[in-house]
Amino acid sequence: MQTKLTINGKSHNLNADTRTTLLDALRNHLGMTGTKKGCDHGQCGACTVIVNGRRINSCLTLACMHDGNEVTTIEGLGTVDDLSPLQRAFVAHDGFQCGYCTPGQICSATAMLEEIKAGWPSHVSADLNAEIALSDAEIAERMSGNLCRCAAYPNIVEAIRTVAQGGRT
Ligand code: FES
Ligand code: FES
């Protein structure tokens, strides 16, 4: 089946079986291996990408469902010479060890900061009508879909907090 996808601003015509997940389409059909496959069933967040501005697990969705959609992967957030603020912060704060979960963590955090700007409350927000204070508990809750087997969590939280507070790294 033909599916038109805009990935990191570039148009792609995907020709793949209708059962192909977005994750497999990115990695196996389009050669974009920045997005990682961990569990392949929605439990780890390693495959997180941003579709039309919202973070999703790309292993849980079929590529053909995204005809005409805009997809952003880790490759689209920054370049080696021009890292995104979160990419820089993860490096500066040692927000990874093996790095396998990192593309998903950074895609997820990028969309999560936009959710906060838009005023979306989380399960741990004390007051649904007040401005969201980005406590460590808020960050942990909002990033709970992204597991890190190396347990770099304290540094991941620190990196995200730094960017959320407008700090430079
Ligand atoms: S690979 Fe998609 S959630 Fe684990
Ligand atoms: S840095 Fe190794 S899994 Fe997160």
- Shape-level CATH architecture of the largest domain: Orthogonal Bundle
Helix content: 25-40%
Strand-residue fraction?
5-15%
Structural class: alpha+beta
Unreliable runs, pLDDT <50, ≥5 residues? none
**What is the CATH H-level superfamily of the largest domain?**
[2Fe-2S]-binding domain
Cofactors and ligands:
FE2/S2 (inorganic) cluster
* SSE string, helices as H and strands as E: EEHEEEHHHHH
Average of per-residue pLDDT values = 96
CATH topology of the largest domain: DNA polymerase, domain 1
The strand line-up of the biggest sheet is 2-1-5-3-4
End-to-end gap? 44 Å
**How many helical elements?**
6
Q: Give me the Rg, rounded.
A: 16 Å
Principal-axes shape call: globular
Taking the sheet with the most strands, its summary is: 5 strands, mixed
Total discrete domains: 2
Q: How many individual β-strands?
A: 5
Notes on the structure:
- This protein is of the alpha+beta class.
- The protein has 2 domains: 2-77, Ubiquitin-like (UB roll); 85-164, DNA polymerase, domain 1 (Orthogonal Bundle).
- 33% of the residues lie in helices and 14% in strands.
- The protein is built from 6 helices and 5 strands.
- It has helices at 22-29, 74-77, 85-92, 102-117, 136-142, 153-164; strands at 2-7, 10-15, 48-51, 54-57, 70-72.
- A 5-stranded mixed beta sheet has the order 2-1-5-3-4, with helices on both faces.
- Strand 3 and strand 4 (54-57) form a beta hairpin.
- Helix 3 (85-92) crosses helix 6 (153-164).
- The longest helix is centred in the middle third of the chain and has 16 residues, at 102-117.
- 37% of the residues are buried.
- The chain binds FE2/S2 (inorganic) cluster (FES) (2 copies).
- One FE2/S2 (inorganic) cluster binds next to loops.
